[in-house]
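Exercise 4. Each item below gives a protein and its sequence. For each, produce the structure-token representation.

Item: Protein GrpE (Mariniradius sediminis).
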Amino acid sequence: MEDKEVIKEESIASENIENQAEGNIQEEGNHEASSKTTESSEQKLQQEINDLKDKYLRLYSEFENFRRRTAKERIDLIKTASEEVIKEIIPVVDDFERAFKASENESDGAKVREGNHLVFHKLVRVLEYKGLKAMDGLVGKAFDPETQEAITQIPAPSEDMKGKVIDVVEKGYTLGDRVIRYAKVVTGA
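Answer:
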């Protein structure tokens, strides 16, 4: 019986050795498969990195082109922004030239003055149409540093004129809601 047990033990031992050998072979295969998987995943990640770099460079280039294009358009717009206003003022300049020629032969000053007023009002209409407004009616109102520039102070003619506009030396103008030239005024002290 001992012989049977020895044979049985030997067969179990040989099976264990075979199983270990198979396990080692499987481990080596798994290790090789694992390293192949690692290599392929590294390649995939590297490819993904390259794709993202390419997308980034393309996007950066597109943005730089956009920035240059908009800067050029902005410069062109600034250069030509006044074109429309100038086109509308040119006929007024023509009217002034005609008025100068006509006034050379005219002896009646009233007619010359009337012609000058017509041309002046035409120019004012063009500018008002473009949004320019004169600051009128400032005399007697309180001084406003947001829209006016006090160039001097004089003694107020009456007590109620202290701190108020006494005279307008140069008109102020607004374009829309923005002051483009402050009114130069004399205030009462």
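Check: Strands lie at 132-134, 148-154, 165-170, 173-175, 178-181, 183-188.
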